[in-house]
Every structure is written in C-alpha cells, then in structure tokens.
Amino acid sequence: MTAIVSDSTTIIVLLNIDRMDILSNIFNKVYIPVKVYEEIVIDEKIILKESFFIKKEIRDRALQKLLLKRLDAGESEAIVLSREMNLSLIIDEKKGRRVAREMGINIFGLIGLLLINYKNGQLSGQETVTVFFEAKQAGFRVGTKLEDEFLQIVSGYSL
After folding, report:
1. Rounded distance, CA 82 to CA 121, Å?
2. In this predicted model, what pLDDT tens digit does every residue of 86-116 receive, in sequence order?
3. How far apart are the C-alpha atoms of 54 and 73, rounded to whole Å?
4. pTM, whole model, 2 decimals?
5. Could you tell me the strand order of the sheet in which 107-108 lies?
C-alpha cells in the first residue's frame, strides 16, 4: 500500500507515543482532510511532516453535510475524502467505522495497523504488545474481546 486517508484519532495516539513508524512502515503518504488536520495540529499543537501527511480539501460538501448528522466533522470529512480518492481509511471510532463500511470503504484501525507491522516483520510480538499498551495509556480505547483476540494473535497470551 502506498497511500491511505486517515481520521485524527490514530494519528494523535501514534504522535503521543512517538510511533509514527507504525504508519510509515506501511504507507508512503497519509491524506488528511482539513478538519482532521485542524484537530491534530490546532488541538494537539503538533507539526506534521508535510511530505508524509498531505492535507486535502474535500469536494462533496453535500455528502459531508449528510454525514455530519451522524458523525463529527473530522470523521465526516475523512470518509468523504476516502470515497473521493478511492483509498482505504484509518478510523477507530465505532460509529464512523460502521458508516464507512456501509459506504463500501475499506477500513483499518490501530489494531489492524499493528497486526500488519507484526505480520510484515517490522515489529516483534513483544514490541507489538508494548506499542498496543502504550497506545492504551495514551487514550486508545478498545473492547475486551478485541483486545484478547489481538493479544492471542500476536503473542498467544490472553488477559
């Protein structure tokens, strides 16, 4: 994979734990809509590497307005941009994932990205688990069932 669109949550978590390699190991470019850029840069006071993160304006404002009835501005724009560019989407919020799936968009979450890194040999099992728990400490939320499944895949242990 070379490019993907992203919502803000996963990027913010990875920035907070200083693990952008989780993205750069897989992708050459991450497109982010303006609202997502603002959530990351303004709210988090962060500077994004412009050769990797590409801020892009959405075109389909009608679809965005429709999605705003169910989702926040960043999620709405990320879904619209993903659809416009025909790229997969990184999104972790349950409601946003459901809407993106309903629209036929291929989605990834932080756990999926960790598993890709692990399966591609870019992270050891122990490092994958460590990054997962660092992400949880930084505010990443995940259900117990999904956490157990993830830990079993990566390291064979269960909580």
Report:
1. 28
2. 999 999 999 999 999 999 999 999 999 999 9
3. 18
4. 0.91
5. 53-56, 29-33, 3-6, 89-90, 107-108
Task: Single out the residue of 42, 37, 75, 39 nearest to residue 56, CA to CA.
Answer: 37
Amino acid at 41: V
Helix axes of 8-16 and 110-119: crossing angle, nearest 10 degrees: 60
Residue 44: the pLDDT is 57
Token pair, residue 53, equals 């993160």
Tokens at 145, concatenated: 């069932």
Confidence of residue 45 (pLDDT cuts 50, 70, 90): low
Interstrand relation of 89-90 and 29-33 (parallel, antiparallel or unpaired)? unpaired
Helix ranges (DSSP H) in the chain? 8-16, 21-24, 34-44, 61-67, 73-85, 94-102, 110-119, 125-137, 144-155
CA–CA distance, 115 with 118 (Å, rounded to integer): 5
* Domains present along the chain, CATH in parentheses: 3-109 (3.40.50.1010), 111-155 (no CATH)
- Supply 157's token pair: 């242990």
